[in-house]
Write a structure and sequence with these properties.
about 45% strand; alpha+beta; elongated; about 25% helix; 3 helices; about 130 residues; six-stranded mixed beta sheet
Length: about 130
């Protein structure tokens, strides 16, 4: 239930991500006038590991991390930095024990209803195995 805190910690402390977004990393939503580029992450599902004799000690959590930009090239660069920062990572981040993070693919999106010129978005999907 605290997976987002680990994701934020990993992204915020990655030099490749920081070079592109500084500290513009947000859970679920951001303000309308946030400077580009930025990242929004969403935890979309939590599947507890089934045990016969107690509560789950290992959850599998789906996380979508989206990079937003005004240009396709910058969105692509940001997506690559996000993937590099998160894929196959393990350890303890912000007191959350992450067993592993696995990249599962991405969606290439364009929102032409936002702003005068539209917004490019790369939505990357990850599976996080988190010790409870």
């Amino acid at each position: 239930m605290k997976t987002g805190l680990a994701i934020y910690n990993i992204l915020r402390n990655d030099s490749g991500v920081e070079a592109l977004v500084v500290d513009r990393i947000y859970p679920n939503v951001t303000k309308t006038r946030t400077a580009f580029p930025f990242i929004i992450y969403d935890v979309s599902a939590d599947s507890p590991g089934d045990t016969k004799d107690g509560v789950s000690t290992l959850d599998s959590v789906s996380v979508m991390v989206s990079g937003y930009s005004k240009t396709y090239t910058q969105a692509s660069d940001l997506a690559a930095a996000i993937r590099t920062a998160l894929d196959r990572v393990s350890g303890t981040y912000n007191t959350i024990v992450v067993q592993s993070i696995q990249f599962q693919g991405y969606d290439d999106l364009f929102d032409d209803d936002s702003g005068d010129e539209g917004i490019y978005r790369k939505a990357l999907n990850f599976k996080v195995r988190q010790t409870i």
